[in-house]
Amino acid sequence: MTLDLFDGEGVEPRRETIAEGAVVLRGFAGKAGPGLLAAIDLVASQSPFRHMQTPGGHTMSAAMTCCGELGWVTDRRGYRYEPRDPVTGQAWPRMPELFLKLASEAAAEAGFENFVPDACLINRYQPGAKMGLHQDRDEQDFSQPIVSVSLGLPIVFQFGGPRRSDRPVRVPLGHGDVVVWGGLARRHYHGVLTLKAGDHPLTGACRYNLTFRKAG
Ligand code: MD3
Ligand code: FE
């Protein structure tokens, strides 16, 4: 008989519900960390990280790249998904198998079977970078969840409601944490506070966030 302290009602719950439809799977991607970072490097060798422009003419503080059939882009013309990387003129890099496996396993763990993302947005935060409150609404079907994976330095995530004025709750997200956003939570405002300086054994001075989407 072995005692598993981290199962069920243990002192360190691995699963937290932060709102209806928003499930945090603490450390779910921890073991896959090195493989995920190698896959990020492979994607970025084909479609480099870049700081995109908002339609309002501001430069985003998080650097971004994408993989999969569709990639999210923003420029003076607006926000949208595109089948080609505007920097390289080529199709976005293919989605690594490890990404697909992790995203579908996490979604299933949260009750969404058969999640097959066609887009993965990769955000890279360096100290001082942040992401203001926004909604993700450029995807076709809001009944599809979004799966997010945090790697490297910790950050404080802000999770609001369906209106920008709804007061957000703060949730710390660390290396290996995976969150599945479905149901009502899928439409809620969210963002992250400014990344603080630090040194992570796998990522050094940065944090990566992968968001898996069914965009098309
Ligand atoms: C809640 N990224 O890429 S991940 C984004 O940490 C984005 O890079 C943040 O917001 C980051 O769009 C937050 C958590 C997250 C991602 C998508 C969501 C929460 C979400 C979509 C709907 C609701
Ligand atoms: Fe978002």
Automatic annotation (TrEMBL):
Positions annotated to bind 2-oxoglutarate: 123-125, 207-213
Entry keyword Endoplasmic reticulum: no
Domain Fe2OG dioxygenase: 116-216
One CC-aspect GO term: cytoplasm
UniProt superkingdom: Bacteria
Comment on bound cofactor: Binds 1 Fe(2+) ion per subunit.
Cofactor: Fe(2+)
Assigned keywords, A-Z: Dioxygenase, Iron, Metal-binding, Methyltransferase, Oxidoreductase, Transferase
The UniProt record lists the keyword Metal-binding: yes
GO molecular function: broad specificity oxidative DNA demethylase activity; ferrous iron binding; methyltransferase activity; oxidative RNA demethylase activity
Binding site for Fe cation: 134, 136, 190
Designated name of the protein: Alkylated DNA repair protein (DNA oxidative demethylase)
Binding site for substrate: 72, 79-81, 138, 164
GO BP, sorted A to Z: methylation; oxidative RNA demethylation
Species name: Marinobacter pelagius
Lineage, top ranks: Bacteria, Pseudomonadati, Pseudomonadota, Gammaproteobacteria, Pseudomonadales
